[in-house]
Specification:
By secondary structure, this protein is an alpha+beta fold. 52% of the residues lie in helices and 21% in strands. It is rod-shaped, with a radius of gyration of 38 Å.
Length: 257
């Protein structure tokens, strides 16, 4: 193994650029003073003292006092590196097991793993408008259960502009409505307003509240009690979309009648 490989391994072990030459010089010198190490490693003497202290903490250099109060240093045998590496391996093997034990609790605390729905409540007429405005952020077709009468009565004058803006944004809607005179009249504008609607018997299916489903959101709009609730949850939205698919099949069958 050449010096390049030795330096690479020592660096992977955790040696700094200053520690490597000091340790390697001391291995060759066996026992030496700080001055001798500095000369051999071509490092400033004051720096050598700092490095020696660091290597002593790692257990790779020992100190001895000789006659005349001269301090000399000796490098630990190379086998000490292997011993330290094995000790670290054992420590991390134990740590891996301990982390496995606490991982479920740690994951439960991590926000990224908490599939908590985000819930927003809006009240009053303005709250209903906020919910309808949010539907205009949809990146896909909106699925809806809605009463045309309740919508137009709750927010007079709002919907002609809303329908136009939704269509201009390229947001289509698939909706199920109670079969009423106003719903039939609205259906005449389906193409213009990017709507695909199905009418179901009003005596049996008079929707309240309105429900809109899009992206990862389910929006409940109580046009009678004047509040809206937006729930953001990918899981719940997906479930409601599947339920709507089932409803849509039956609504189309009833619409044909």
């Amino acid at each position: 193994m050449d010096n390049i490989d030795i330096e690479r391994v020592l660096k992977n072990f955790g040696f700094t650029d200053k520690e490597m030459p000091v340790y390697l010089s001391l291995l060759e010198l066996e026992t030496a003073t700080a001055s001798q190490i500095a000369d051999d490693a071509d490092i400033n003497r004051s720096t050598v003292y700092v490095v020696i202290e660091s290597l002593q903490k790692k257990g790779l250099i020992s100190t001895q006092k000789e006659e005349g109060n001269v301090t000399k240093y000796t490098a630990a045998p190379p086998e000490r590196l292997l011993q330290l590496a094995e000790e670290e391996t054992k420590k991390y093997k134990t740590l891996v097991g301990e982390i496995h034990n606490i991982l479920p609790e740690l994951k439960s605390k991590y926000p990224g793993n908490k599939q908590r729905p985000r819930v927003r409540l809006y009240e009053g007429k303005e709250g209903l408008i906020s919910a309808y405005e949010d539907t205009l952020t949809s990146s896909e077709e909106i699925l809806a259960y809605a009463s045309i009468e309740n919508m137009h009565k709750a927010i007079p004058g709002y919907f002609p502009d809303y329908y136009s803006r939704r269509a201009n944004k390229g947001i289509s809607i698939k909706s199920i409505h109670p079969d009423t005179e106003e719903a039939r009249e609205r259906a005449k504008s389906n193409k213009k307003e990017s709507r695909n609607s199905a009418l179901v018997p009003a005596s049996k299916y008079n929707f309240s509240p309105e429900i809109n489903i899009y992206d990862n959101k389910i929006v409940f709009m109580s046009l009678v009690e004047k509040f809206s609730l937006i729930i953001e949850s990918a899981e719940l939205a997906e479930a409601f979309k599947k339920i709507f698919d089932l409803s849509w099949g039956e609504a189309r069958r009833l619409n044909k009648k």
